[in-house]
Design goal:
243 residues, alpha+beta, Nucleoside Triphosphate Pyrophosphohydrolase, Arc Repressor Mutant, subunit A, 2 domains, 6 helices, elongated, NUDIX hydrolase, hydrolase activity, WH_DNA-bd_sf, NUDIX_hydrolase_dom
């Protein structure tokens, strides 16, 4: 809380006592999902300073007094991981009383989906390391970041059955097998290949590029891309994709 000067000393005392009961700080934490070679990943940083030095965590830090929360999310992610120019969406606010030691801190969680091959993360000046972890192999994290991740991952598993996500996780041209593997990685279950293919093609969401894979040892598969107009319409109205 910023210091204030009042002529009435009694008022100063009253305000200082009241300040002990207000929220002490507001922060941002980012859950960044990536996909590569049929595996789903999340981006973590290792703290290089402070009481949690050496611990892995979600990219996150404090919101500055003079910036919006969206601007803070972009700045924090970029400064700690060098990942930038991506669309971050607000997910949920976390404010358990004991989530941060010795202070009352509320954090706003953001999430994003990215194609891992487009980024080369590098740790910022306060981070010892930055690394992609498979979602099944995430280490113990600082504070309540494991809870934040689990909550966001559960949200993702629900979201993928109601919105056509994957636009940013897959390459511009992809096979139906790659799309199937993305769904399997997020839902953490095996899906019927033939049934999946029929359901997805029925939505007219995919466009046959009339191209096939190159430089593969197996039979080259057809390459598809998303129809952006239909994709955006489905994003607006949603759909139910029963696996």
């Amino acid at each position: 809380m910023r210091p204030y000067l009042f002529i009435n000393d009694n008022l100063v005392i009253h305000i200082l006592k009241f300040s002990d009961e207000i929220i002490d700080a507001l922060s941002i934490d980012c859950v960044i999902f990536g996909f590569k070679e049929s595996e789903l990943y999340v981006l973590l940083v290792k703290h290089g300073i402070g009481p949690t030095i050496g611990q892995w965590a979600l990219p996150g830090s404090w919101i500055r007094y003079n910036e919006s929360i969206d601007a803070a999310a972009t700045r924090i992610l970029s400064s700690q991981t060098s990942v930038e120019n991506i669309y971050l969406e607000q997910f949920k606010t976390f404010g358990d009383l004991e989530r941060f030691p010795n202070r009352r801190v509320i954090t706003i969680a953001y999430y994003a989906f990215v194609n891992i091959e487009k980024f080369n993360p590098k740790p910022g000046p306060t981070e010892a390391d930055v690394k992609w972890f498979k979602v099944q192999e995430i280490p113990t994290m600082a504070f309540d970041h494991s809870q934040i991740f689990e909550s966001c991952f559960n949200f993702l598993q629900h979201k993928i059955q109601h919105e056509p996500i994957g636009f940013n996780l897959l390459p511009p041209k992809f096979t139906l097998l790659q799309l199937l593997e993305l769904y399997e990685a997020i839902l953490n279950q095996k899906l019927d290949k033939s049934n999946f293919r029929k359901k997805f093609l029925k939505m007219n969401l995919l466009v046959d590029t009339k191209e096939r894979q190159k430089d593969v040892s197996h039979r080259a598969a057809t390459l598809y891309r998303f129809d952006e107009n239909i994709y955006n319409k489905l994003l607006d109205k949603g759909f139910i994709f029963e696996v």
